[in-house]
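Our consortium's second objective concerns turning raw sequence data into structural hypotheses that experimental partners can test. To show how far this objective has progressed, the report includes one record in full. It was chosen at random from the queue rather than selected for favorable results. The single chain below, 200 residues long, was entered without modification.
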Amino acid sequence: MKESYYISNSCVIKNQKVFKNETLVFESNEADFNAFAKATYKNLQLEYPKFFKMDGLSKLAFLASEFLLSDKNEADNIALLFANKSASLDTDLKHQESIQDKDNFFPSPAIFVYTLANICIGEVSIRHQLKSESAFFCSENYQTEFMLNYTNYLLQNQKADKVLCGWAEFLNDDYQAVFYLIEKQGTKEHTINEIENLFK
């Protein structure tokens, strides 16, 4: 008999608002993403100084994950499957700016380290001490069916106890995060329709 899986929790961050399980849990009037991210961080009452050194994409993924993994069991084997459209382009452009002027050549290691999109997975993994399966995909839109099948494969083959899936798009202060946690218990079934509803 085929096992059923469920979306146990979700988090959406966009337009200076944070929704958890479709309920508004935080709102800020800060139009600048870094100011909004800092306000969200303070609202969560976190003590994680490394957050302030992250690029925008990593901050976005970190915050969305924080709303879903803050009460996880340390024994949980949680796989991470993230995706977006622009990869690390926002940081790539900042890095390019720092090296294109031959007379003012100051490449920043702090920026360069974030010129891979999957670094945001590393930041979430370090924060929550995860040593699990992970992958970052780039595509024009969120590939709902592919992510559903990949998630089900990981759970069915006991590669993970839970899977955190996320769309984390960040470019030029334009951002959207849609994250959701899949496991064997819950009320909202893990289906293409339910996933697509999170993006509406």
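The partners drew two points from this record. The radius of gyration is 17 Å. Residues 6-198 form a domain with the Peroxisomal Thiolase; Chain A, domain 1 fold (CATH 3.40.47.10). Both points have been shared with the crystallography group to help prioritize constructs.
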